[in-house]
Design goal:
It comes from Marivirga salinarum. By secondary structure, the protein is α/β, with parallel strands linked by helices. The chain is built from 6 helices and 5 strands, in the order βαβαβααβαβα.
Length: 134
């Protein structure tokens, strides 16, 4: 894995989650973006993201202005198999709505549905259960 992508509209949340990963000694590029659209641009190497490594793990918020996490997943499903094969999508949310968890379970690219904040335990669970090498 060359990168972890954090997609969350809250800058403080992205900062905190990046700090958690750095404290765990994760030695890969950690990219945070503040919108689902930016996340798609990153995955497609558009704009300022032409020279960044592709992520092995994507932590995705659901409730964002503009394009929601759900809308991101619809677009993500249209991306190449190559992107799907190398990235593990984990929904990282504050939602306690069981409908959200059930909906996520029906989307094959979503490997995990976990609650914020990101913790070392959540990160290592995602990495270890999905054979992501960090």
């Amino acid at each position: 894995m060359n990168c972890i992508l954090l997609i969350d509209d809250d800058e403080a949340t992205n900062f905190y989650h990046k700090l958690i990963l750095e404290e765990e000694g994760v030695d890969v590029h950690i990219q945070s973006v503040k919108s689902a659209k930016e996340g798609l641009d990153f995955l497609l190497c558009k704009g300022n993201y032409k020279y960044y490594p592709q992520p092995g793990i994507i932590f995705l918020d659901l409730n964002m202005p503009g394009m929601s996490g759900w809308e991101f997943l619809v677009e993500y499903n249209e991306l190449s198999k190559d992107i799907h094969d190398r990235a593990v999508v984990t929904i990282l949310t504050t939602s306690d709505n069981p409908d959200d968890r059930n909906r996520a379970a029906t989307i094959p690219v979503v490997k995990e549905f976990v609650h914020k904040p990101l913790t070392p335990e959540i990160f290592w669970k995602v990495a270890n259960e999905n054979f992501v090498i960090v």
